[in-house]
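FIELD: query
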Amino acid sequence: MTESFDALVVGAGPTGLACGIELQQRGVKTVLIEKGCVVNSIYHYPTNMSFFTTPELLEIGNIPMTSLNEKPNRTEALKYYRKVAEHFHLNIHQYEKVDRISGEDNAFEVAATDRLGANHVYRVRKIVLSTGYYDVPNLLNVPGEELDKVRHYYKEAHPYYNQDVAVIGAKNSAAIAALELYWTGARVTLIHRGAGISDSVKYWIKPNIENRIKSGEIAAHFHAKVVRIAQDSIQVATPGGEIAIANDFVFALVGYQPDLKFLNATGISLEPETQRPRTDPETLESTRPGVYLAGVIVAGMHTNEIFIENGRFHGHLIANSIAARIAM
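FIELD: result
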């Protein structure tokens, strides 16, 4: 099946949706391709997560976002972005994966496969990549990491009641997971290669996790790293030597990165040290003419530079450039 559009957006997260809205408002016929569900990354956030920002900083398309509390939670965000997509009648193809981008500016061909295995081809003039960074976890690269007991995402604590659980990392995700697991009755051990809980952890979380560690309610090993994972234990290198710790589950929460392999395959040039894609700061067009980048992937490996709060404005720059060029 072949379809034609002025623009195709890869990714239907908040930034991808914002791009779709801005393009549509300028009369650019647009389709969004999403390999998961709408705002797939937010869906995979911890079930009880609250954002660290206020509702208005998550808004797109000038549609107000409301929350019962000062900071919106995951459920409220999912509902909001569904309603925004519905309000603007965005053409979103969910559960469809982009396999290949070929052709050139004004004559691209995008091949995709849906969840039923059917192939789709899109002929488009411009492409916007808004693929985020949450799909590719950083790995520990240790023996046993492939075991089913190892998780790179934390969803909720209940399944781990009365289990020996290791949390690797010491930033926000790791601190929140460790606390929720402890509160739910897991025996938690936190392991981090640094000297302590990261200073970037939110101010209302940091003293909580530090107090649980100080009291011995959560065991912690700093300046330490997991060197091997077995079915019933983990081997940890500590300043005092290697130790074995009883273990049922491991949460390796050491961060995520953009899908650099996909960017390279798409012909996007990356800065060698930062893996930051080269883009025009005025339009966010990449070195491949006609291909634009939006959201956190603009920052390369510096994923803490761009969030929903500022990535949502990329759509305005990109849409202005695309609308002007297709009108030529």
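FIELD: remark
The helical segments are 14-25, 40-43, 74-87, 172-183, 206-214, 260-265, 308-311, 314-326.
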